[in-house]
Write a structure and sequence with these properties.
Arc Repressor Mutant, subunit A; 2 domains; Tetracycline Repressor, domain 2; 73% helix; mainly alpha; 196 residues; single chain
Length: 196
């Protein structure tokens, strides 16, 4: 009886191996040979699933995005409205090992979007999806009557998005100076500052 291979699971295994190589050794070490070794498969098998590095990196970026979206969709948003909003926005911050790895990989791949049109297009799409999540929070504060009366919705969406991105970068590049606790406290402070 022939062995049944789950091709999607195999692609995810390769993507996770790519993440591991990049996080441990840097993007420049993400060669077919090193990724195949990390995935415990041959280079030929890896090329069967991803014919180009760009294709592999696009799959890796999409996997990060999908995991964040899936986690956010499966959360139970208990507590106050502000707590629920904080829970949603925390999906984009490196506050535990999984999210830290995802954000680190995302940051590294983001630098590739400057020179790879395929990745740049995907990055724009995911940027818009994340902006929509941030918009949902700001619009939610307005809709339930918690937002300050003088709040400029569009500016606050941009400011909150920039804050989330900045905290993710600081949390990854300077975790000793911008701790998980500081990340959470800053997010809470900012959300409260948007309220009456």
């Amino acid at each position: 009886m022939p062995k049944i291979v789950d091709h999607e699971q195999r692609k995810i295994k390769i993507a996770e191996a790519t993440w591991n190589v990049i996080v441990q050794d840097g993007l420049e070490k993400a060669s077919v040979r090193n990724i195949a070794k990390e995935a415990n498969m041959s280079a030929g098998s890896l090329r069967h699933y991803f014919s180009t590095q760009s294709e592999l990196f696009a799959f890796c970026m999409q996997l990060v995005s999908d995991r964040v979206k899936n986690r956010a969709a499966q959360k139970s948003y208990d507590g106050s409205s502000l707590e629920a909003m904080e829970t949603l926005l925390s999906e984009f911050l490196p506050i535990d090992e999984d999210r830290r790895t995802e954000m680190e990989v995302w940051l590294i791949f983001s630098s590739k979007t400057l020179v790879d049109p395929t990745l740049e297009e995907l990055s724009q799409l995911i940027y818009d999806e994340m902006r929509q999540a941030v918009s949902t929070v700001v619009e939610g504060l307005i809709d339930i009557g918690l937002a300050r009366g003088d709040l400029d919705k569009q500016l606050e969406i941009e400011r909150l998005y920039a804050l989330i991105d900045g905290m993710a970068i600081h949390g990854i590049l300077h975790p000793d100076r911008f701790s998980v606790k500081k990340t959470q406290t800053t997010l809470q402070y900012h959300l409260k500052a948007l309220c009456k």
